[in-house]
Design brief:
The protein has 168 residues and is α+β, with helices and mostly antiparallel strands. The protein is built from five helices and four strands. A four-stranded antiparallel sheet has the order 1-2-3-4. A hairpin with a 2-residue loop joins strand 3 and strand 4. Helix 1 crosses helix 2 and helix 3 runs antiparallel to helix 4. The protein starts with a helix and ends in a 5-residue tail after the last strand. The mean pLDDT is 82.
């Protein structure tokens, strides 16, 4: 009977260790892969289909928010802008785009405000339950940076969403 208690304790310790350490390890792995420009490692750690779909949805909501609620031409403009934005997402939400996000704070340098260029991003982990966590960043000057959302994939984690820092 004692061996069963030892086995259960070992399993509980392993699960608890995984629960506590795996988000930090996943965040460390993605930051290191991005800084090294390791495209294959990033492809393994990012669910690009989900990430692109979420980015398209965010862009469409932002276009709808900024557009007026006017006539047919306004509606047509929103549709065209949404389609163009959706196509653009496929071009920037790539392994290189994710590497840029982690290292420079945006998918491409033109999207990073001048005051943040040259500053390092520091990344922290915030737990969102058993199946999700966020990689939250801040610039050297303490200003909040982008946030990456991760979802559990088996016993590992995939990057599935991004919230860019507000542009001032």
């Amino acid at each position: 009977m004692r061996w069963l208690a030892v086995l259960l304790s070992a399993v509980a310790l392993a699960v608890g260790g995984w629960y506590l350490a795996s988000p930090s390890l996943a965040m460390k792995d993605i930051v290191e892969a991005a800084r090294a420009g390791d495209v294959s490692a990033l492809e393994e750690k990012v669910d690009f289909a989900r990430l692109q779909e979420k980015a398209r949805g965010q862009l469409r909501r932002e276009i709808d928010r900024r557009a007026g609620r006017g006539d047919v031409l306004d509606s047509l403009g929103r549709v065209v802008a949404g389609e163009l934005a959706g196509a653009a997402v496929g071009q920037v939400v790539t392994p290189q785009g994710v590497a840029n996000l982690v290292t420079i704070g945006g998918f491409a340098m033109p999207f990073v405000p001048d005051r943040y260029r040259g500053q390092q991003l520091e990344w922290d982990v915030e737990r969102n339950g058993f199946d999700a966590f966020a990689g939250v960043s801040h610039w050297e000057d303490g200003t909040p940076g982008p946030t990456m959302q991760f979802a559990r994939d088996g016993i590992g984690w995939d990057l599935v969403g991004v919230q860019l820092a507000p542009v001032e």
